[in-house]
Write a structure and sequence with these properties.
- The complex is a heterodimer of chains A (about 475) and B (about 200).
- Chain A contains 17 helices and 19 strands.
- By secondary structure, chain A is of the alpha/beta class.
- In chain A, the strands form 5 sheets. Chain A has a 5-stranded parallel β-sheet, with helices on both faces.
- The longest helix of chain A is centred in the N-terminal third of the chain and has 17 residues.
- By secondary structure, chain B is an alpha/beta fold.
- Chain B has a single domain, classed as Aconitase, domain 4 (Alpha-Beta Barrel), CATH 3.20.19.10.
- Chain B is built from 8 helices and 8 strands, in the order E-E-H-H-E-H-E-H-E-H-E-E-E-H-H-H.
- In chain B, the strands form 2 sheets. In chain B, strands 1-6-7-8 form a 4-stranded antiparallel β-sheet, with no helix packed on it. A 4-stranded parallel β-sheet of chain B has the order 2-3-4-5.
- Chain B is globular, with a radius of gyration of 18 Å.
- Classes of the chains: A alpha/beta (about 475), B alpha/beta (about 200).
């Protein structure tokens, strides 16, 4: 019986069993940021410990940075203090820091791959649940809490229990106007927000084989929204081509390196705890209507009606979501008015996301009264977009073109919703209050769908707005 | 670094109902602009406990009948979303010493255990019976006993609870903070790192 990539990476990094039965797992790469690391460094100081492998620890700043004015000191004194604290910690413990002045700063999950720090067959941890993103490279990458950040800083290991592997095959081709974001929203809708508890998701099949690295990152990123602690795609020629020549890739013995990376891919006869098969053609441009990422529908569908729920639990959860979202049951999801449009985040803030939207934006204008912002995931993404003139396309259409950061995904910086504003968002979470206002509302979707919403001022079908000549499904309402 | 075993938690309980209660709900992100965990207790469930003007809303944690509760009762997928340890930290600092729910998101479960806060699951039916009992008598003392994996209260008897074996072992043997044991294996860590060409 063969092994899955997860099992191979786990075996290669298992230091031993702890007395309680958990495995002590070596974390080859540790990514840190300003929000979840200060207390961990504080604990190190309290215990008189050092960072075990500072050369395997990489820091950047993303959650709290403003995206309009990044000059120091930051206007928010608390945010400024967190930046100073991170600076003090990386200096004292000798950690590499991609700071605002480096030209390489950005969302930690954009920076890692960009720098070639994220590599196949490795273990990666970060005090951030979207660490799952790095699984796109065939790494086992997961989010951890701050005490575990301390453990990894001090020992380069952590206590962990092995998970089961669920294989998710997607075969066939996506229809025009359907993107990686729709694929993961579709998967989460099918399997539920808690469907992945206890599992690692291995994404495979023809669709994933043909996806770019950035598309794979979008899917792996939201594994956590499906309840899976990590998700991955087996490394292949696409992975190796992406990594070739990146700053942290050792180009000394490229062939040997590729051979080693490839050896971690799941064996053809690997056993899986569960296998799910999905046809790519079934995936529609998807949007959420509720307050959990699994509360989503295709753009031609209707907002569900609690009256037609299968169980009491489902009825209560639909009612609660619709009450918060102030949306009428049983009506088309298309046409919901929006106030804000946000393109960015670790899910959809990469070059290909902005490039794709920029193909369709010329000739269109953001609707009156809609605030539309485009936030590159890193300084390098921003620079590449600007070299291609993408920033100008966005600006001409009425978007604000911002500097790199997490921005409106999570409400730790000045980019926030106000009151009960509703936001068409390319981010990953539609939780109550997630975007900074306790009554703010989020509708998750792909970047092109956000652009369509920005232009029409409503949740819209990008295939119609941008005349994609696709077979647009007949309304199911 | 000897740490206290956590064998059982006893105290009154309060239910925060709902499925998929995420860590943004438990501790809104704006309260994470801090460099210590001190003071997070007062912000637990802040945006559902207080309105925009800071006035208390109707919420179980604002209900004087349940003041001082040591055990939090909730639904499926409790603690989903962000990996922020600020969530279990704020619950602990609010006064909770254990959580009992239908299921837990993985990262929350690990974070809470590392703080010595047991998170156990129970069947929907048992949780509903417990909820009714607490509602009828908020002074009811609930005991979660890890060696026997039973939750008991009043004269009503007890019901089984579940927890991954390794986490239970970590709690009952006083190894819930693993740092000492992780540090002990330094030679093995170096050996393993050496075998991996990238570390």
């Amino acid at each position: 019986m063969g092994k899955s990539l997860y099992e191979k990476v786990w075996d290669a990094h298992a230091v031993g069993k702890l007395a309680d039965g958990r495995t002590q797992l070596l974390i080859g790469t540790h990514l840190i940021h300003e929000v979840t690391s200060p207390q961990a460094f504080g604990m190190l100081r309290d215990l008189g410990l050092k960072v075990k492998f500072p050369q395997r620890t990489f820091a950047t700043v993303d959650h709290i940075v403003p995206t309009d004015n990044q000059s120091m000191p930051l206007a928010d004194p608390l945010a400024n203090e967190m930046l100073l604290e991170l600076r003090r910690n990386v200096d004292e413990f000798g950690v590499t820091y991609f700071d605002l002045a480096s030209g390489k700063q950005g969302i930690v999950h954009v920076v890692g791959p960009e720098q070639g720090i994220t590599q196949p067959g490795t273990t990666i941890a970060c005090g951030d649940s979207h660490t799952a993103t790095h699984g796109a490279f065939g790494a086992i990458a997961f989010g951890i809490g701050t005490t575990q950040v301390r453990d990894v800083l001090a020992t380069q290991t952590m206590a962990m229990e092995q998970l089961q592997v669920r294989r998710i095959n997607v075969e066939g081709n996506l229809r025009p106007g359907v993107y990686a974001k729709d694929v993961i929203l579709h998967i989460i809708r099918l399997l539920g927000a808690k469907g992945g508890i206890g599992y690692v998701y291995e994404y495979g099949g023809g669709l994933f084989d043909r996806m770019s690295m950035e598309e794979r990152m979008t899917v792996c990123n939201m594994s956590i929204e499906g309840g899976a602690r990590c998700g991955y795609v087996n490394p292949d020629a696409t992975t190796f081509a992406y990594l070739h020549g990146r700053p942290y890739v050792d180009m000394g013995d490229w062939e040997g390196t590729v051979k080693r990376w490839a050896s971690f891919a799941s064996d053809a006869d690997a056993a899986y705890a569960d296998i799910i098969n999905i046809a790519a053609e079934e995936v529609e441009p998807s949007v959420t209507w509720g307050v959990s990422p699994d509360q989503g529908v295709g753009i031609s569908e209707c907002i569900p009606d609690p009256a037609s729920a299968q169980t009491d639990e489902e009825r209560v959860s639909i009612s609660e979501a619709l009450e918060y979202m102030q949306l009428p049951a049983g009506t088309p999801v298309k046409g919901i008015p929006i106030n804000v449009a946000f393109i960015g985040s670790c899910t959809n803030g990469r070059l290909s996301d902005f490039r794709e939207v920029a193909r369709f934006l010329p000739g269109h204008k953001v609707a009156a009264g809609v605030k539309a912002i485009a936030v590159p995931g890193s300084q390098i993404v921003a620079k590449l977009c600007e070299l291609e003139g993408i920033d100008k396309v966005f600006r001409a259409a009425g978007f604000e073109w911002r500097e790199a950061g997490c921005s409106m995904c999570l409400a730790m910086n000045p980019d926030k919703l106000i009151g009960d504003q509703i936001c068409a968002s390319s981010s990953n979470r539609n939780f109550k209050g997630r975007q900074g206002s306790p009554t703010g509302r989020t509708v998750l979707m792909s970047p092109l769908m956000v652009a369509a919403a920005a232009i029409t001022g409503t949740v819209a079908d990008a295939r119609e707005v941008f005349d994609l000549k696709a077979q647009v499904g007949a309304g199911a309402c | 670094m000897a740490i206290e075993p956590v064998l059982r938690v006893s105290g009154t309980a309060v239910q925060v109902p709902g499925a998929d209660i995420d860590t943004d709900r438990i501790i809104p992100a704006r309260f994470m602009k801090c460099v210590t965990f001190d003071g997070l207790g007062e912000y637990a469930f802040y945006d559902v406990r207080f309105d925009q003007d800071g006035k208390p809303r109707k919420h179980p944690l604002n209900d004087p009948r349940f003041a001082g509760a040591a055990i939090l009762l909730s639904g499926p997928n409790f603690g989903c979303g962000s990996s922020r340890e600020h969530a279990p930290q704020s619950l602990a600092k609010f006064g909770f010493r254990a959580v009992i729910a239908e299921s837990f998101a993985e990262i929350f479960l690990g974070n809470a255990t590392t703080l010595g806060m047991p998170c156990v699951t129970a069947s929907k039916a048992d949780l509903e019976t417990l909820r009714q009992a607490i509602e009828a008598d908020p002074t009811l003392v609930l005991t979660i006993d890890l060696p026997s994996m039973l939750a008991s209260y009043g004269a009503a008897g007890s019901f089984p609870v579940q927890q991954p074996a390794s986490l239970r072992e970590a709690l009952v043997s006083g190894r819930w903070d693993p740092i000492a044991e992780l540090l002990e294996n330094e030679a093995l860590i170096d050996q393993r790192a050496l075998a991996l060409s990238y570390v």
